[in-house]
Design a protein that fits this description.
- The complex is a heterotrimer.
- By secondary structure, chain A is an alpha+beta fold.
- Chain A has two domains: about 5-15 and about 105-175, 2-Layer Sandwich (Gyrase A, domain 2), CATH 3.30.1360.120; about 20-100, Heterotetrameric sarcosine oxidase (Alpha-Beta Plaits).
- Chain A is about 25% helix and about 35% strand.
- Chain A has five helices and ten strands; from the N terminus they run H-E-E-H-E-E-E-H-E-E-H-E-E-E-H.
- Chain A has a five-stranded antiparallel β-sheet. A five-stranded antiparallel β-sheet of chain A has the order 3-4-5-2-6, covered by helices on one side.
- Chain B has a single domain, classed as Folate-binding fold, CATH 3.30.2270.10.
- Helix content of chain B is about 20%, strand content about 35%.
- In chain B, the strands form two sheets. In chain B, strands 3-4-5-6 form a four-stranded antiparallel β-sheet. A two-stranded antiparallel sheet of chain B has the order 1-2.
- The longest helix of chain C has 18 residues, at about 460-475.
- Classes of the chains: A alpha+beta, B alpha+beta, C alpha+beta.
- Chains in contact: A-B, A-C, B-C.
- At the A-C interface, helix 1, strand 2, strand 6, helix 4 and helix 5 of A face strand 8, strand 12, strand 15 and strand 31 of C.
């Protein structure tokens, strides 16, 4: 009868994969360097650092807002040389950079729209009309800290949770 | 209760930690009466019935400290500012840095 | 059994779907759409329980969640659930219900003798009767009360069902789906608002299901059907039937419980039994209708006395005649529809008893047409009969008394708007004289009330009120739309004339039926001075049962007002607290039970440690290896001794990844750390590490750890496992609030690194095989307290710190977490030639006590740096958090207990943590207390127990013999006060 009861019996679970080959660099603007940092970031990545909880994409890079004046720069690691060292050099004096590639486990849920179970499970409003492609939220689910962003091309949702909690987080993700 | 984080947007109070009165300012440790001032800073609090400025920390979100103006009787929230901005504003009017 | 009281042609139950159930073991049949109560009534069952205190026979008073009497145990075994209201329990096939609070059987209850002893159980009986002698309380009184006055029995086994938690956000929440709620929902949904409509029943429609009505030319029931079908077709609407909004909270937040599978015997696989909803609504329309009030008269609790609106529900919604001959007892015009419905159901109406001196002509005509006697200005003074009503004693004008035979008394004392939710945030209901009822007072900005809940009673005005409220809510939530047209319906007023209780009652007259509070109890409370509503409630327990006084609070208040000759508003008001109706604990717990009670953090070497047979211990969120038994080792002490001895003589590895790890960057990083640590960090050389301590602003130690510097503007600090989050929060406060002008960036990186302690005289040899060339690990190139970034295991970026907690030559080596397991396996395989052992938290603890290092038991929130023996670390050249207040005379007092070491005088004796120190010949009293033991361990290195403790005048007592008294275990041990470093006091082993 109720909408929620229906979706519980639905078996069409979305595909969940873990992103493992990604270099993640945490960038935090040095004091009063924001303007210069923005300029260098734009010329380096081809996109501006998002000033609000958004994720932006450019070839080979995804930049996720991670708090005021902070971002996660995500790049495919592949067989590239030291991605982190390069960023550290580029932003020397403008931003503090830390390699956090191993801090979080990142899971991608392939879904163009959020399932009712996913919407119900989150303490933030994940409704299709509210949490738009490119939106980012730092929040918690089931007592676990998590960052979630909706891919700018609306093909899915990424969840980043502290690595040491990832077993419990996967338990949770498996239920949505 | 829900708090409108200036960075993350409106969230439930389960995402935040409460510290207390935001109107008390860490005293100048070089002041000749530092002992008394720090004592007051650590222990002496008004018990406000009405709008009050409070420090909240967005624990589960962006880790920003916030100055929240809240009516302690009704939990109505009138204003939320980044603590860092408030601190800068305060420093402009009176230099309180050690 | 046949359903003898089912009326052909009436009701909304599905007669093609019979359902079997049992009550007290007797099999019955009902229909889909029945509640347990309606099914029992259909089968002629009137007596369903015994009352709380007096064990009086009780039946079914209502048809809703306000039911005080018909409480039953549902289901059996692990699913047994006590105190379930039969009036809301949805019937399902195989339902098993039992009556409660009866011994040995429902119809023969030996404990109803309580009724004869009732003076004992009058108001305040807990306070008065059982005061003396005090020693009787535990042994006599309490067990007696518990046996005599209990209700149902909870299940003895773990709940086998799962419970879910869910969140929902909406523009408009509409609570209740009667005429006002449905119209509000339609208006808001048509305007485009995201809407949630809840109803506590399994069917939407509220009173429209229970009364005969016409809306826009169709029956009320058809109108409900078409409205729900429109709502469910809209994508912006979520319908939640079987869902009770149990609480309103700040900022438009609501708690609700959805009974997902309470209407089946066993939930299907994976389906939750109930779901706890957390709903955030921009605007809310409360349309929860009203609850009819009983009138207080003698024996008004007898099975067969029923609210008039409930009588109509049973007839119209369930097709059940709740009696054969009825007396209608009322103070308002609503009695007319009750009579019509009774007649239609084939029930003989013996009399209409109206408390009003003059009943409207139209009603009188209708009654007389049916041959019904009308008593004006009269009252039912007493119900007659024992386990079932057999008649009514009517006291009419001029004091004449008439006895009328009946088995049903349909009573209506007016209507109380269901405004509980409007009071959850402190709203005070207002008395409305014309309605003789409380209506909602001041409301939060985001809440409106519509329909009967708002004191608007006729159908037409409910529809109009709901439409208006729904439209206004949508507009307030930001939607721009025209108002919805209001369908046409009748506008029947229900003139009510306040009437509370019948003076002429000869028998016990109940105000609160669930808690067995009588009118006499209220009078007693008044005589004894408990006149304020709050006192009345607590003294008599009126309104304090699980129904929160839905049918009794206003009556109790009115009675007190009469007794004190005050107006009702001057006497008080009624307010409620969540939950609106009882919520099971399982729903609140949700999935957080068993292994999901709290999250579990796993260290990077967890899988390896598990494989290795480690015994784990929960430390906060963490699961840590406590020790690693080898085959043949049977007790933990043997294992720990072996681990310690191996570290002290060879090499061991311990996962210390649980330490909090924070990167502090920026041009002012050094200056910043100087202000948060008691010691200097700005002078730390690049490539060096230093132990540091932080204080709280009040001068008490907060946390300790190490800081390493990798560049001028780049530090890495560690915190204790327990304080990782607290320290980060503190540092962010310092950065953002105290000193925003500093150029500092803070990065929590606890999860980034796997970090292992490699300790023991052979540690260097082992690590030489791990670090990549050309890194020089020699003592001269990488001395004690050095720190370096390097690569290990052929190219993995890592970090090496020469730090020691064990007191041996030791390192901490860190690699990105994904390589943690590999590094551990390599340390074990490469370490084989050195006799390496993994060690756990036990051995770690033993070695730190042997070294006299302080940890959690000493940094316990009461100790200063000086108390911990670290006073000299505090820099005098700078300010830091906690400096000023740590110099307060009280904290600087040399007599304060300080950390010092203890050995048992008899070296074979065991020490006990928590034991208190008393001078050797003094009595073990609080006055003679000198301090207590904080940490103890058996030291395999020394061959006896060692302890650390906090002792007054500690340094001057070194060499003294004290008594360590452990009153918990009844042990007394002589101990010698010794310096706290038991092992290698000079630290020679660290620097080799």
């Amino acid at each position: 009868m109720s909408e929620s009861a229906q979706s519980l019996t639905a078996k069409n679970r979305p595909v969940i994969s873990e992103l493992t080959d990604v270099s993640v660099t945490h960038l935090a603007a040095r004091r009063e360097m924001r303007t210069s940092l923005d300029d260098v970031a734009r010329s380096t990545f081809g996109v501006a650092l998002p000033a609000t909880p958004r994720v932006v994409e450019a070839p080979g890079v995804m930049i996720v807002w991670a708090g005021p004046d902070q971002w996660l720069v995500m790049q495919q690691r592949g067989d590239k040389a030291d991605i982190f060292a390069e960023l550290a050099k580029t932003f020397n004096g403008l931003a503090s950079v830390v390699d956090v590639s191993d801090s979080r486990a990142i899971f991608r849920v392939a879904a163009s729209r959020p399932s009712d179970a996913l919407v119900r499970s989150m303490g933030i409003d994940l409704d299709d009309s509210v949490f738009r492609p490119g939106d980012v939220a730092i929040t918690h689910v089931s007592h676990l800290g998590v960052m979630v962003w909706r891919l700018p091309d609306a093909t899915g949702y990424d969840f980043a949770c502290p690595r040491t909690y990832s077993r419990d987080f996967l338990d949770w993700l498996g239920k949505i | 209760m829900r708090i409108n984080c200036p960075f993350c947007g409106e969230r439930g109070n389960d995402e935040f930690s409460y510290l207390g009165d935001a109107s008390v300012v860490r005293p100048d440790p070089a002041s000749p009466s530092a002992a008394d001032e720090f004592y007051a800073f650590a222990y002496e609090r008004r018990n406000v019935a009405g709008p009050m400025q409070e420090l909240w920390y967005h624990t589960a979100g962006c880790h920003a400290w916030l100055v929240v103006t809240r009516d302690t009787r009704t939990h109505e929230i009138f204003e939320v500012k980044a603590a860092q901005d408030v601190a800068f504003g305060r420093q402009k009017t009176a230099d309180t840095t050690p | 059994m046949t359903q003898t009281s089912r009326v052909t042609g009436l009701g909304l139950v599905d007669r093609s779907k019979p359902l079997d159930f049992t009550f007290d073991g007797v099999p019955y049949t009902g229909y889909k759409g029945d509640t347990l109560a309606s099914a029992l009534l259909a089968n002629g069952v009137r007596l369903v329980g015994r009352s709380f205190k007096y064990h009086r026979p009780r039946g079914i008073l209502t048809a809703g969640s306000e039911e005080p009497n018909a409480l039953v145990e549902l289901r059996t075994g692990a699913r047994r659930e006590p105190n379930t209201r039969a009036t809301v329990a949805e019937l399902y096939s195989g339902l098993e219900a039992k009556s409660q609070n009866r011994f040995p059987s429902l119809s023969l209850d030996l404990l109803s003798i309580n009724g004869l002893l009732s003076p004992v159980f009058s108001a305040g009986f807990y306070y008065k009767t059982f005061m003396w002698p005090a020693s009787f309380w535990e042994k006599v009184y309490e067990p007696m009360i518990r046996r005599a006055a209990g209700l149902g029995r909870a299940a003895n086994e773990a709940d086998p069902d799962i419970y879910d938690k869910a969140n929902a956000f909406c523009d408009v929440l509409v609570i209740g789906s009667g005429p006002a709620g449905l119209m509000a929902a339609l208006s808001a949904a048509r305007a485009g608002a995201r809407l949630i409509l809840t109803d506590e029943s399994f069917a939407f429609g509220g009173r429209l299901l229970s009364d005969v009505t016409t809306i826009d030319g169709m029956s009320g029931v058809e109108w409900v059907k078409s409205s729900i079908s429109e709502l469910s077709s809209l994508p912006n609407v979520r319908l939640l039937p079987r869902t009770t909004i149990f609480g309103a909270y700040d900022s438009g937040t609501f708690g609700a419980v959805e009974r997902v599978a309470d209407h089946v015997a066993v939930p299907s696989a994976g389906e939750p039994r109930q779901r706890l909803w957390h709903i955030v609504a921009k605007q809310t329309v409360v349309a929860q209708g009203s609850t009819e009030r009983p009138i207080i008269f003698g024996n008004n609790d007898r099975p067969g006395v029923m609210l008039a609106s409930a009588v109509r529900s049973y007839i119209n919604r369930f097709g059940v005649a709740p009696g054969q001959t009825a007396v209608v007892f009322s103070n308002n015009d609503d009695a007319a529809s009750t009579i019509d419905d009774l007649v239609r159901a084939g029930v003989t109406v013996a009399a209409l008893v109206d408390t009003r001196a003059s009943v409207p002509e139209a009603i009188k005509l209708r009654a007389r047409k049916q041959g019904i006697r009308v008593f004006e200005g009269a009252a039912v003074a007493d119900a007659l009969g024992g386990q079932r009503v057999s008649g009514a004693r009517i006291v009419a004008a001029y004091g004449t008394s008439h006895t009328v035979g009946c088995d049903l008394i349909a009573v209506s004392g007016g209507f109380n708007p269901n405004l509980q939710v409007t009071t959850h945030l402190g709203g005070r209901p207002q008395w409305h004289e014309n309605l003789a009822a409380f209506v909602p007072g001041a409301l939060p900005k985001w809440m409106t009330v519509a329909g009967a809940a708002n004191g608007v009673f006729s159908l037409a005005s409910c529809l109009g009120d709901g439409a208006k409220a729904g439209h206004a809510a949508a507009v307030a939530a930001g939607f721009d739309a025209n108002a919805t047209a209001v369908p046409h319906a009748e506008d029947e007023p229900i003139n009510v004339s306040a009437f509370w209780h019948v003076e002429a009652a000869k028998h016990k007259a109940f105000v609160d039926q669930q808690n067995d509070v009588t009118a006499a109890d209220v009078r007693l409370a008044e005589r004894e001075g408990y006149r304020s509503v709050e006192h009345l409630k607590r003294y008599t327990t009126l309104g304090m049962a699980t129904d929160q006084g839905k049918t009794s609070n206003v009556n109790g208040l009115a009675l007190m007002a009469e007794l004190t000759k005050k107006s009702i508003p001057a006497t008080g008001t009624t307010s409620a607290r969540p939950p609106y109706s009882p919520v099971s604990i399982g729903a609140f717990a949700g999935e957080h039970r068993g292994k999901h009670f709290k999250p579990t953090r796993l260290t990077p070497s967890h899988n390896w440690a598990k494989e290795r047979g480690a015994v784990f211990i929960e430390a906060g969120m963490w699961l840590r290896a406590q020790y690693f038994p080898k085959p043949g080792e049977t007790d933990w002490q043997t294992v720990v001794n072996r681990e310690v001895t191996t570290v002290r003589s060879g090499v061991g590895v311990c996962d210390v990844s649980t330490l909090g790890k924070i990167e502090i960057h920026g041009t002012d990083a050094g200056k910043f750390l100087d202000r948060v640590y008691i010691n200097m960090m700005s002078t730390l050389g690049v490539g060096k590490a230093r132990y540091g301590m932080m204080l709280r602003e009040d001068g008490i130690a907060m946390d300790d750890g190490t800081a390493a510097r990798f560049a001028d503007d780049r530090y890495f600090i560690t915190t204790t496992t327990a304080n990782a989050i607290k320290v980060l929060q503190h540092l962010e406060l310092c950065r953002q609030w105290y000193w925003p002008e500093l150029d500092v960036q803070i990065f929590p990186v606890s999860d980034q690194w796997a970090q292992y302690s490699v300790a023991g005289p052979r540690a260097r040899g082992l690590l030489a095989k791990i670090v990549d060339a050309p890194f020089d690990i020699s003592n001269s190139a990488f001395p004690y307290m050095a720190a370096a970034e390097l690569t290990v295991l052929s190219g993995i970026k890592g970090r090496l710190y020469r730090l020691s907690f064990s007191g041996e030559l030791a390192y901490e080596i860190a690699v990105p977490a994904r390589h943690g397991e590999l590094l551990m396996r390599k340390l074990m395989s490469e370490g084989e030639e050195f006799g390496v052992t993994p060690y756990g938290t036990e051995a770690l603890g033993v070695m730190r006590i042997e070294k006299g290092h302080v940890a959690g038991p000493e940094l316990n929130g009461t100790t200063t740096a000086a108390d911990l023996g670290l006073g000299k670390m505090a820099s005098t050249k700078k300010d830091f958090v906690g400096r000023v207040l740590s110099q307060r005379p009280g904290l600087a007092d040399p007599n304060r207990p300080r950390v010092i070491g203890f050995k048992p005088v008899d070296r074979s004796a065991r020490l006990r943590g928590g034991a208190h120190f008393i001078a050797k010949d003094a009595k073990a009293t609080a006055e003679n207390d000198l301090g207590y033991m904080t940490s103890v361990a058996y030291s395999p290195s020394l061959g006896h127990w060692v302890g650390l403790g906090l002792l007054s005048q500690a340094e001057s007592r070194v060499g003294e013999i004290l008594t360590a008294v452990d009153p918990v275990r009844g042990e007394t041990t002589l101990v010698e006060v010794v310096p706290s470093a038991f092992y290698d006091a000079e630290g020679a082993r660290l620097r080799v």
